[in-house]
Amino acid sequence: MGGLTLLCAALALLAVAGGAIPRPEEAARMARFVLHNCDWGALATLSAQEGLRGRPFANIFSLSDGPPGPFGGSGVPYLYLTDMEISVQDLQINSNASLTVSLAQTPYCKKHRYDPQNPLCAHIIFCGSIVKVNDSEAGIAKKALFTRHPEMESWPKDHNWFFAKFNITNIWVLDYFGGLKIVTPEEYYSVKP
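The line above is the sequence of CREG1 protein; the predicted structure tokens follow.
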């Protein structure tokens, strides 16, 4: 049994290092894998800004679901936000959003010469809402974000930064030909990347 555990750990390390990724039939695992290996994503909100009110508005945000490595990911996308940011102002009016992450930001797609739009360069679309984390979860969010984005710790204190998470309600996976795959949050959280 110990040999099997060691083999699984070695395979997990290889996967995170950009070697093997989950198979196309493992859509929930692929969603976790992609999120855990991405440092940023495109967050789309409904704009509350004059001249754009009600229109889609996408912006890039650093994120993390936990420290790098094969066993560091919780699957929860954490963000470090300030009310001064335009998308956060949108979220104050309507907290619903979508978040897209793609292996295009990792070496994987370049290594295989996959265009970011190629389905083999997997990307995940999460729908849900942004919520501030409570005090008991703030330490988890801080560790998740500051281990991947150490610069955040020195951002100006007068910007009133706060930790938030993307509360996932729907998940779509595009990682192979034939269209999107739907993964439920329950399926997503029940697997490891």
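Note on the example: The mean pLDDT is 90. Residues 27-190 form a domain with the Pnp Oxidase; Chain A fold (CATH 2.30.110.10).
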